[in-house]
Write a structure and sequence with these properties.
The complex is a heterodimer of chains A (367) and B (309).
Chain A lengths: L23 H15 L2 H21 L8 E6 L4 H10 L6 E6 L1 H9 L6 E5 L2 E5 L5 H17 L20 H31 L2 H6 L5 H31 L7 H22 L6 H18 L14 H5 L2 H15 L7 H21 L4
Parallel strand pairs in A: 1-2, 1-3
Antiparallel strand pairs in A: 3-4
Helix pairs in contact in A: 1-8, 2-6, 2-8, 3-5, 6-8, 6-9, 6-10, 6-12, 8-9, 9-12, 9-13, 12-13
Chain B lengths: L2 E12 L3 E12 L3 E5 L6 H8 L7 E6 L4 H11 E4 L11 H9 L8 H7 L15 H13 L5 E5 L7 H16 L3 E6 L2 H7 L2 E6 L2 E6 L1 H8 L3 E8 L6 H5 L4 E7 L2 E6 L2 H14 L3 E9 L2 H9 L7
Helix pairs in contact in B: 3-5, 8-11
The chains are: A mainly alpha (367), B alpha/beta (309).
The structure holds adenosine-5'-diphosphate and magnesium ion.
Chain lengths: 367, 309
């Protein structure tokens, strides 16, 4: 078999003509973007580590622990011991911790929030001092009252039974994990695209790029693609973390979660692109990004349900992209909802992302 | 001779008020190194960025390699290598990765290794850009232009702020590119750079060309070949007229008690100068002669120095 030696195209072997394909620019832009992100410790921290720390901290603070023990103050006096004895005989004895002390110490402790309730017993009966504005104080008053009466021999006309709900699926951490996921997708989309672009514009790197035959659409596509790659890692990390540490149950299909995550990442990428379309300085885009994100941190139900806001605000709150993303993620992750049950929320995200992209491309400045 | 770049009646007004370029005509030939020399704010960057197709002129026409930016932008981009006045490349990429990225944009780029070698960057190939010295960063900026395997190289103040050794290194790189039939357009505010590197140049001030030609032509046409500088004591500075009458003197400048005579034949002028000093009963306290430079041309034309710092 004969091999035909190709003569070098030009003078030396080094000069053999190299030819790049249509997608070489895109592939290299994406590759270099990932390398850059990987070598930036701040990015690793804020995108990957910070959400886990937040989940860990809040998850532990609000974990399903045994019922709280409420410390209360009992004012010294001839009948103080009787109060303590009655409480210890009551069925609620595990939840109430009586401390006997002088009246002034009891009042000081009460004011500082150390005790939820001050109990004084004399010949005329029992007096409670409580603060109606403090939920634990109100609760303690009811509990102690109940305990004293029952221990003293009151008979309840109706027998009741209670059950504590601290099963996976209904705890605070279950509510929190999808919210953190949505917030993280918003944060990293806005900063990873908005801030990154303005920084490149300020460094004149965007201008340098458009001085080459690079396709501008490839550049933006690579930036968005890098977000999608990160999104997969962000989603996987938080979900696996939630499952391992807090036994969070993921009810929905992983593919549905990833598709919603991708839509969220792209949508917030579009909003990031819009905030970055004209700004020349990173200081101005930082302010802009915070102004855009602030309402959603508060209203979109990341840490607590937005149902607590007055009813007339709810339609506006539901129209925010982060609300749609959080609601869709919660429905899929916690309730196993299907994608087609989430079409309304998908539409909200798509409209925000689509409109932002179109406006951004119209206004975008490369220099 | 084939024309590489041509522009006529170029004007650029920023925000409707700053007239950065005010009617520029240029013709740059294939294979030459052409310089735009001028002080800060003269309009060099504005001009070169219009020629590079990065800025829209307010009016005027530009042709590069026989094409216009309106009709052949993509094609032109493949043929030009551009280094901007200030670009901060990504600090977290290595030198090789940066060149790899830029080369991926071109259909037929040079090999990254060949460019690394040509710019003496092989040793730094795997160093992060953030760790490079100023001279190495500037060489990398030129390398990102050369990796395009361009027909025309555009360099905006390529050596500003560099130490003398790094400047000379860059000059060598530019000359090598020119030897391979490359065309170079560069801007500078260093007159020695323009004088040594450029085949032809245009001196720009306030957005207009105030002189153009080869460095030797400009010096010859506008000043004498030599400059005689002297200072005397016991004499008012009002006597400039006496020096202008000396044989062979083309022009006289008084600068802070120091007189400069632009002359063609110092051996004719100096004896006459000494005689005149004696006649005025003054003392000569300083006397030197030197070759005239583009700096003298600029001062002659504008009454100002090229670099005011
Ligand atoms: N984007 C801009 N907006 C407004 N004025 C500008 C802008 N760029 C440059 N100028 C002004 O135009 C003039 C020429 O600037 P430039 O072309 O950068 O000069 P050079 O490169 O010779 O220093 C200067 O007065 C400068 O302040
Ligand atoms: Mg400039």
């Amino acid at each position: 078999m004969a091999t035909i030696e190709q003569p070098p195209a030009m003078s030396g072997p080094d000069d053999a003509i190299r030819t790049n394909g249509r997608w070489s620019g895109y592939v290299n832009l994406l590759h270099m973007r990932m390398l850059e992100l990987w070598r930036e410790p701040e990015v690793i921290f804020w995108v990957f580590v910070f959400p886990l720390l937040l989940a860990l901290g809040l998850g532990i603070a609000f974990r399903g622990k045994p019922p709280d023990v409420t410390p209360i103050a009992v004012v010294e006096g001839p009948k103080a011991q009787e109060v303590v004895n009655l409480l210890q005989r009551s069925p609620q004895h595990a939840g109430i911790q009586p401390n006997v002390m002088s009246a002034s110490a009891a009042l000081d402790g009460f004011r500082l929030g150390k005790y939820a309730l001050v109990v004084t017993m004399d010949d005329s009966g029992v007096q409670f001092r409580y603060d109606p504005a403090r939920p634990e104080s109100v609760l303690a008053r009811a509990q102690v009252d109940d305990a004293l009466e029952t221990a003293a021999g009151r008979k309840n006309p109706i027998n009741t039974e209670t059950k504590a709900s601290s099963e996976p699926g209904a705890r605070y951490i279950d509510f929190l994990i999808p919210g953190l996921l949505g917030m993280n997708l918003m944060n990293s989309g806005m900063w990873g695209i908005g801030f990154a672009l303005v920084e490149m514009r300020q460094r004149k790197l965007l201008k340098r790029f458009v001085a080459t035959p690079m396709r501008r659409s490839d550049f933006l596509l690579a930036l968005v693609s890098s977000r999608l790659v990160l999104m997969i890692v962000e989603v996987a990390l938080l979900l696996v973390f939630g499952m391992l540490v807090f036994h969070v149950r993921v009810e929905g299909a992983l593919l549905s979660i990833l598709l919603i995550g991708a839509l969220g990442a792209v949508s917030f990428g579009g909003i990031g692109l819009l905030t970055a379309s004209r700004a020349q300085k990173i200081e101005s885009v930082s302010g802009l990004i915070n102004v855009v994100m602030m309402p959603m941190w508060i209203f979109s139900g990341v840490f607590f349900s937005y149902e607590r806001f007055p009813k007339i605000f709810l339609p506006a709150i539901r129209a925010l992209p982060l609300t749609a993303l959080n609601d869709a993620l919660r429905a899929i992750i916690l309730q196993g909802a299907s994608l087609d049950s989430q079409l309304g929320r998908i539409a909200v995200l798509a409209v925000w992302g689509g409109v932002s992209f179109v406006l951004a491309l119209r206004w975008f400045r490369w220099s | 001779m084939e024309v590489a770049i041509q522009c006529r009646g170029l004007r650029k007004t920023y925000d409707g008020k700053v007239e950065a370029v005010r009617g520029l005509d240029l013709t740059i030939n294939m294979g030459e190194c052409f310089g735009l020399l001028g002080p800060n704010g003269a309009g060099k960057t504005t001009t070169i960025e219009i020629l590079e197709g990065l800025l829209e002129p307010t009016s005027g026409e530009v042709e590069v390699l026989g094409r216009t930016w309106q009709s052949h932008a993509r094609e032109l981009r493949e043929w030009l290598g551009i280094s901007l006045q200030e670009t901060r490349l990504s600090e977290k990429l290595t030198v090789r990765e940066t060149l790899q990225l830029f080369s991926s944009f071109y259909r037929h780029p040079s090999s990254v290794d060949a460019v690394l070698e040509e710019l003496s960057l092989q040793e730094k190939a795997d160093a992060l850009v953030g760790k490079l010295s100023g001279g190495q960063k500037q060489r990398l900026a030129v390398a990102t232009a050369l990796v395009a395997d361009p027909r025309i190289l555009f360099l905006d103040e390529p050596t500003t702020g560099l130490d003398p050794q790094s400047r000379r290194q860059l000059w060598d790189i530019i000359r090598q590119f020119q030897k391979r039939n490359g065309t170079v357009l560069l801007t500078t505010h260093y007159m020695d750079e323009a004088e040594r590197l450029c085949d032809r140049l245009a001196i720009i001030d306030h957005g207009q060309i105030i002189a153009a030609g080869t460095p030797a032509e400009l010096i010859e046409r506008l000043t004498g070949h030599h400059v005689v500088e002297f200072a005397i004591s016991g004499q008012g500075a009002d006597n400039g007229a006496a020096w202008a009458k000396l044989p062979g003197v083309q022009s006289v400048r008084a600068d802070d008690g120091l007189f400069s005579l632009q002359v063609n034949e110092p051996h004719e002028t100096i004896p006459a100068l000494l005689a005149e000093v004696q006649k005025q009963r003054a003392q000569l306290v300083h006397l030197t002669t030197r070759q005239a430079s583009l700096e003298d041309v600029f001062v002659q034309l504008t009454g100002r120095h090229l670099r005011e710092d």
